[in-house]
Structures are given as C-alpha cells and as structure tokens.
Amino acid sequence: MEAADQAITWNPEQAEAWNNKASALNQMGQYEEGLAAADRAAMLDPNLAEAWVNNGTALIGLKRYSEALSASERVLAKKIPGQKQHTRTGKRLCRASLPSLHRFCHQ
C-alpha cells in the first residue's frame, strides 16, 4: 500500500493508484477505507472495472449487499473491459445466500 500512497502523493488524480490502495485496504479487511479509495478511483475513471470490483468487495465486506449488487450491475450494463472479474464479485454475493440476489447467480 505504501507504493499506492506514494503514487497518490505524486498524482492524486491517478485512478489506478487509488484502485491499488482500495485493493490493499480490502485485503486487510479495512473495508470503509477501501470503499472510499475505490469510490475515488471510480470517480476519476468510471470505466476502470477494477475500481468497481474493489467497490463491490468493500461493500460485501461491510455487508451492504444491495449496494454491491448495484455496483456489479453497473459494470455489466456498461460492458466495459474487465467485467468478468466483477461478475465473480457478484457471484460472491450469491454465496452470501441472499434470496433477493438469486437472479444474479445464473447470469
């Protein structure tokens, strides 16, 4: 995460750096901070699929499942590069056994 922080210091408008920070924070279980970093990355580059993956991962970690599903659907609707990885995030929602997400499991 130190490298991501350094890149952000050099260029705070670099979406990939914010996304890398989000990924690191999510891996450490710091989902609130990961969500903030993923949101910043997505704001800077709405077509950065990985930012939406990290957004969804953080939301799942925070048990905000309906919001995570919305993030997944946003990427799928745009058909942007990298969406297959985001679909895997959506499939993790299904494993959370939420009946309202059942339709997503079969896409």
Tell me the layout of helices and strands:
Layout: H1 2-10, H2 15-27, H3 31-44, H4 49-61, H5 65-78, H6 83-95, H7 102-105
Helix pairs in contact: 1-2, 2-3, 2-4, 3-4, 4-5, 4-6, 5-6
In short:
The chain is mostly helical and 107 residues long.
What does this structure look like?
With 107 residues, the chain is mainly alpha-helical. The chain has 7 helices and no strands. The protein has a single domain (2-105), classed as Serine Threonine Protein Phosphatase 5, Tetratricopeptide repeat (Alpha Horseshoe), CATH 1.25.40. Helices cover 75% and strands 0% of the residues. The mean pLDDT is 79.
List keywords for this structure.
107 residues, mainly alpha, Serine Threonine Protein Phosphatase 5, Tetratricopeptide repeat, 7 helices
Biggest sheet features: none
**What's the CATH architecture?**
Alpha Horseshoe
The tally of helices reads 7
Query: How many separate domains?
Result: 1
Oligomer: single chain
Please state roughly what percent of the residues sit in beta strands, choosing from under 5%, 5-15%, 15-25%, 25-35%, 35-45% or over 45%.
under 5%
* Helix-residue proportion: over 70%
H and E string: HHHHHHH
**Regions with pLDDT < 50 over 5+ consecutive residues?**
none
The overall strand count is 0
Task: Kindly report the CATH topology.
Answer: Serine Threonine Protein Phosphatase 5, Tetratricopeptide repeat
Shape, per Cα inertia axes:
flat
- Termini separation comes to 34 Å
Structural class: mainly alpha
- How much is the radius of gyration in Å? 13 Å
Which homologous superfamily in CATH is the superfamily? Tetratricopeptide repeat domain
**Can you give the mean pLDDT?**
79
CATH class: Mainly Alpha
